[in-house]
Amino acid sequence: MTGNLHSWIGRKRRIADEMATPLVRRMAALTDRADVALDRGAPVPNHWLSILFDDAAPQSQLGPDGHPAKGDFLPPVPLPRRMLGGRRVTYHAPPRVGDTLERETEIAAITPKVGRSGAMIFLLLRHTITGPNGLVAVEEQDIAYLEAKRNAPAPKEAPAVVPNAAWREPWAPDPVMLFRFSALAFNGHRIHYDADYARDVEGYPALVVNGSVSTLFLFEAALRHTPGAQVRRYDARTMQPVFCGRRATLCGDPPDAEGRSTLWVEDEAGAMALRIGATITP
């Protein structure tokens, strides 16, 4: 199934974007931040880079799920569903208001697997982001492609062991939050705003909270517990979806002497849905 896909490994694409004032202002509104300066040249929280570098594919080139159709830059993976399985990011310098940034994306690997819900193909994307003063960040993303939802339920995986949290904050992602983030990032993936599609086509019980939204609000909570710090690097793994309108909890441990901490999101049943190992320092 992946024989012809391996020729896509090594392909690269460059895209430029600007950390424009309106984007920073809207992100501050979404996260209830009043402490982020909007002056040109002011530093922006590292982890806010997630709002940049949208695909902005023409409307005529979108697939039925709202993503750009496969076969242009992304390979024509013969599986219909996709999700972000994990990411690893290292920040080298803060983006600044008004900076023009460039991202080079490389298809680094394509790996078939069989999971509890059937066949899967993992696509590893490596992003290198540069700005006026050099390297800003390096990110690797694991994109999981999945089979169509089957009528028979997938066998349940044992829940991840949840550690004791030093702090916990209730979190209630709602449709307005998902809409505002998707609009800000120009993310057309329908599972995040089209409840009928998410339920009837992809088999989810409700809207799926973007992994980037869960990561964003988890870091915002962590930074409230470490004032004056910045996220320097992190390794995130999606364990299971978080659903809109259902209770969730943002959890974490304080950084150790080197700034390392474990952060996670618990779903309404108390199971770990997203786990992040992060380095957070001043």
Automatic annotation (TrEMBL):
Gene3D superfamilies named among the record's database cross-references: Hotdog Thioesterase
Keywords in alphabetical order: Lyase
GO MF annotations in UniProt: (3R)-hydroxyacyl-[acyl-carrier-protein] dehydratase activity
Keyword Nucleus: no
Keyword Lyase: yes
Signal sequence interval, chain numbering: none
InterPro entries xrefs: FAS1-like_DH_region, HotDog_dom_sf, Mitochondrial_HTD2
Name this protein carries in UniProt: 3-methylfumaryl-CoA hydratase
EC number of this enzyme: 4.2.1.153
Annotated ranges, domain FAS1-like dehydratase: 74-136
